[in-house]
Amino acid sequence: MQTNPPPHKPVHLTRRGRVALVATGALVAATALAVPLLSLRHGEASRTASLLIPEGWRAGQVYQAVDKALRLPPGATRKSLAKAHLKLPNDAQGNPEGFLFPATYPLREEATPESLLRYMVDTANKRFGGGRITAGAQRHAMNVYQAVTVASIVQAEAATRSDMGKVARVIFNRLQRGMPLQMDSTVNYAMNRSTLDTTRADTKIDSPYNSYRRMGLPPTPIANPGEDAMRAVLNPTPGDWLYFVTVKPGDTRFAASYEEHQKNVEEFNRLRANRPQ
Asked: Cα(137)–Cα(148) distance, rounded to whole angstroms?
């Protein structure tokens, strides 16, 4: 791992290497899709709008999407959290990050921010609250909330669904060895942005989400993961990897040694330097 990266140069320890939904420098929610769904009411076909929450969206993006879908002033959904009475794990301390389950939700005429947020959290509790999930988390010496936190990192870091099990294995291997996770996605969360370049200055920010400086998991999930990411956490791919880098789309290289990883990083930098601007 690059323990002493040159100033202003990107640190390429672990990177997800895929197009981000959030613009660099600011959290900008991508437009939530209002999808017409055919439903039957009293024997007649009618259309019901629905709200699509993609996998990997952060809570802030979900709030903005709900505001827009319900034609509310910006910030209204966030302000409604206190009266939504969400059934969250005690560890969450009222923060629904990680439990706003990605899915398509119907927008009924009577929908409110509170009802939509409750629907999302109740769905997450059903997906993440079964005995199989609890037992799988316990196999890795975690509770369900911690498993969701790992899944959120996997969701943010993995370039493809097939990479998720390997990314989860990297996280567990680092935790077991007492290594910092050094995941760019946690730094991005701390800085309220998303980017493929993490600078040396970025890795020094004072935040509990800075996994370059802080050991262990971040204090909360960093996004809202889907079932594929959770499945990868409960059944990570066997391997001894400690590093990964997406050299090019569809080509993520996992390495057990720093030397091997550095070769992969060099190839990534070479390909990016030759890429048309």
From this structure: 9
Contact 56, 156 (CB under 8 A): yes
Q: CA 180 to CA 187: how far, in whole Å?
A: 13
Query: Cα dist. 59→25, 102, 117, 131, 187 in Å?
Result: 17, 11, 10, 26, 16
Q: How far is CA 122 from CA 96, 101, 117, 254, 263, in A?
A: 11, 8, 8, 36, 45
d(CA 160, CA 115): 32
Q: CB burial class (10 A; 0-12, 13-18, 19+) of residue 172?
A: middle
Stretches in the chain below the pLDDT threshold 50: 1-31, 36-47
**Predicted pLDDT at 129:** 86
Supply the pLDDT for residue 277.
61
- Terminal Cα distance for the chain, rounded: 28
Instruction: Say what the pLDDT of residue 272 is.
Output: 81
Structural contact between residues 142 and 150, judged by C-beta atoms closer than 8 angstroms: yes
